[in-house]
Amino acid sequence: MEIRKKPFGLLSSGEEISLFILSAGEYTACLTDYGATWVSFIMPDANGMRDDVLLGFPTLNGYVHKHPFFGSTVGRFANRIRNARFSIDGKEYHLWANEGSNHLHGGRRGFDKQVWQAETDTIGGDPAVRFSRTSPDGEEGYPGNLEVVLTVSLSAEGVFQLHYHAVSDAKTPVNLTNHAYFNLAGEGRGTILNHIVQLNSNMYLPVDSESIPLEKPAPVDGTPFDFTSPKPIGRDIEITGVGYDHCFLIEKNDSTPQKDGHLASCARVLEPSSGRTMEVRTTLPGLQFYTGNKLNGVPGKRGSIYGAHAGFCMETEFYPDSPNRPDFPSPYIEPGAAWDHRTIYAFDIKSL
């Protein structure tokens, strides 16, 4: 078990940004205090070959300039809010509209574009980094001063855990997630269309042309969105149009009910050529499954160029536009109440 800290670069203001390297067993995770961003995850395959399985950039510069949220901590509200507005107790709040008329991933300068305080720690012997920041009242239009702590840890068994804790002094919606793009064959090694995915979800949210949810959830049965049995991502992807970018409703079960703060298994992934696997578990009610549809020649690590479907995201979250949807699980917290959720990405290797 080891934690190292080293310089990652300077912002135009002269502020120094750091890289935190967590090593446990055969796994290494790198994170930075710029955007509390997950920069890399290195693991072996079934033959012992080590690869980075996260898309991203080789230097800080890529993360500072416009990019597709590679590994970013997204907030104050992940995903979309229709017309960039919502109401609390009859008062309407207007947010920054940064995707047409809608609000996406926290706005123009969301949590992904902020410098977080960071300190290293150990949790049960596992290396960890604790990121924190205050989102001030009015930031991007949101009410209340929101104190946020994100604790990230890595175990020798390949369990990468994100523990979010937030408290506000005013009622406000909160929806925090990580926007990592995965390619379990190794970043830059082709598309993810052969990855085999199983989702613990019988329902998903159909969306309009702006990716805003329609009237109500729909069953996945008989549609391209049915991942209740394992299947390759590419099997039905053309039927969806450009690809998947939809929220799936996570099924609860008696052993892992989210309502009790336990982690429900929501996704399993296998990359067959490497034997690498990933399981996603969370206390949150939704999973946004995105297949990198809008990647269009983004320069990445090792000289890689990321095109469409070079990576996939599994963003645990409250449902999109839930501040305006009383029929959805509520993302609001009251003053002094904690928004406390966990997500685990558990990596492993299957013998070939």
Write the layout of secondary structure elements.
Blueprint: E1 2-10, E2 16-24, E3 27-32, E4 37-44, E5 50-52, H1 60-64, E6 73-74, E7 80-81, E8 85-88, E9 91-94, E10 103-104, E11 117-123, E12 126-135, E13 146-154, E14 159-168, E15 172-173, E16 177-178, E17 196-199, E18 203-204, E19 218-219, E20 231-232, E21 245-249, E22 264-271, E23 276-282, E24 286-290, E25 298-299, E26 305-306, E27 313-317, E28 332-333, E29 338-349
Textual characterization of the structure:
- With 352 residues, this protein is mainly β.
- The two termini are 28 Å apart.
- Strand 1 and strand 2 form a beta hairpin.
- The protein has 1 helix and 29 strands.
- It has one domain: Beta-galactosidase, Chain A, domain 5 (Distorted Sandwich).
- The chain has a 9-stranded antiparallel beta sheet with strand order 11-12-13-14-29-23-22-17-20, with no helix packed on it.
- About 2% of the residues have low confidence.
Compact description:
The protein is mainly β. Helix content is 1%, strand content 42%.
**CATH topology descriptor:** Beta-galactosidase, Chain A, domain 5
- Which runs of at least 5 residues are low in confidence (pLDDT < 50)? 253-259
The run of helices and strands is EEEEEHEEEEEEEEEEEEEEEEEEEEEEEE
Strand order of the largest sheet: 11-12-13-14-29-23-22-17-20
> What's the number of structural domains?
1
Portion in beta strands: 35-45%
Rounded to an integer in angstroms, the radius of gyration calculated over CA atoms is 19 Å
Shape: globular
Structural class category: mainly beta
Kindly provide the name of the CATH class.
Answer: Mainly Beta
